[in-house]
Amino acid sequence: MNQQHGDERSRIRAAMDRLLAGQPTSSNGSLTAVALAAEAGVHRMALQKRHADLKEAFYARVRAETHQTPEVERRLRKEVVRLKEALGESRAAEAESRRRAEQVVLAAAVLILRKSTDQDQTVPENVIFLRPFRD
């Protein structure tokens, strides 16, 4: 580990302590990885890539010390709920479409069968033909 890497890690640890104590100096004080990176003075991607263990340790401390779920996790949980609801609605719509398709196929089969067996039958008044009727 080089000197810069070690310096970043110590700044991230100090930033964790400040954020959890509610004493931010250079961020908005939210308990997120973005605020942690800003508080530590490191690029957000450096925190995500090189110091992912510290980011996870921060979220673990947020859960343990504040007894709250990190904002990122709350947003993801809400999104999961929304997506599950959307999936349920989509499946219901698909089932309804399948049911209607089956009804159309059955109706077409009945009409074809009637046409082939009942050539002499009169047509009810409420039936509108799409093509001219030929006797």
UniProtKB/TrEMBL annotation:
Protein name: TetR family transcriptional regulator
